[in-house]
């Protein structure tokens, strides 16, 4: 026991001496750690730039009063291969490529479910951060004006410990963006408004989109499945439209359904970002891939057709009322009844 106590005392004195010596030269050790950390980061960036999978380019940071982003054949920095083992499909991301003070700074991104919208947005944010770190980026060319902050509203989750619902978290993060973003920020908003009723979500998404394009006027990628919102944006010079492309093939209608037969869409994802809007989200294709029972999907398709017909009838009725505002009320009601009887 005595030998063990002597050992512990000797070790205690030794450790005290080491710590005392370390404390006397703390600033020197701190500088050494900072230098090693900086060297580690620089070596990591150098390794990634020289050994990155595929084409890498040196980004060009342009001092410009007009915000813009121009990335050609860009790839996700963290994904070299897709889940299927194929090469990652490169995409061009251009925001105000003409570098015009009157150019569109907001790009509304549409496309099928699982078509790659969220991946494209995350990819863009990471590329901008890498570019401003001074690292080479996975693209054939990259030019941008400086970005002061990157804001994201991506994903959906609640905060059960603080009693905040998914929709409340969405709005809180959106409020932070609107309060703090500047004209030189990059904003990434993914499917805002999906946590509430369709009409409320569409209205909120529309108002936020207007504020980002006119009020804040910053570079923005804004993805949505609200196609009625997209329909209202055609011709808006402040907003451009893009979509993740897909190939759609019509399959034969189900037998025995008659006029109520539901034609299925066979969707092939192309993962290519192109100009224009996607007409549908093809949610039933995602339901099929997820393994929902066929009977459930068929019932959902029929209900979707009913909703689409009802929406189309209301749209036509509003258009007729606008064309003939002086029509008597009874004639307008008769037209509305006739529209309900039509198979549209």
Structural commentary:
The chain has 344 residues and is an alpha/beta fold. The protein has three domains: 2-47; 54-281, 3-Layer(aba) Sandwich (Rossmann fold); 293-344, no CATH class. The chain is 45% helix and 17% strand. It contains nine helices and ten strands. The strands form two sheets. It has a six-stranded mixed beta sheet with strand order 6-7-8-4-9-10, sandwiched between helices. Helix 8 (294-323) packs antiparallel against helix 9 (329-341). The radius of gyration is 28 Å and the shape is elongated. The chain starts with a helix and ends with a helix. The model is unreliable at 255-259 (pLDDT under 50).
Short description:
The chain has 344 residues and is of the alpha/beta class. It contains nine helices and ten strands. It has three domains: 46 residues; 228 residues, Rossmann fold (3-Layer(aba) Sandwich); 52 residues, no CATH class.
